[in-house]
Amino acid sequence: MAVCTGAFGAHALEERLATAKTANTYEIAVRYQMYHALALVLVGLVGLHQTSTALNVAGGCFAGGIVIFSGLLYAIALGGPKILGAIVPIGGVGMIVGWVALAIGAWSFAKK
Fold it and tell me: Residue 82 carries which DSSP code?
């Protein structure tokens, strides 16, 4: 989805993302969506070998973080109300919590 969204932004939304600020906001949304999609794959790979609450939390936080962080940045870049920017950090916190939870889940897997 991140690749499709990035290509869509680069080609179909070129005029809509004409200013450097809106293009940068959109690019950040795509980049973080991609990073955290890969993190979800990592959660799944670790989860093949063990199940844990930490991995469940990581997956949920990454997914929710993508929706909130990237989703709201897409909305802002495409002309949504700037007040949505006040909610974006909640998605970022979710992503950070996801990384901590993934580290805990991976650490407990590595100890076995």
Answer: G
Cα dihedral sign, 37-42-45-46: negative
Q: Which pLDDT belongs to residue 78? A: 87
Alpha-helical segments (H) within 48-68: 53-65
The length of the chain is 112
Question: CA–CA distance from 73 to each of 66, 77, 78, 105, 106 (Å)?
Answer: 10, 6, 8, 29, 30
CA distances from 71 to 15, 48, 54, 64, 101 (A): 20, 29, 24, 10, 22
The predicted model scores a pTM of 0.86
Model pLDDT for residues 21-67, shown as the tens digit of each residue: 877 888 899 999 999 999 999 999 999 988 899 999 999 999 999 99
Q: Residue 71: what residue type?
A: G
Handedness of CA 67, 71, 73, 75 (dihedral sign): negative
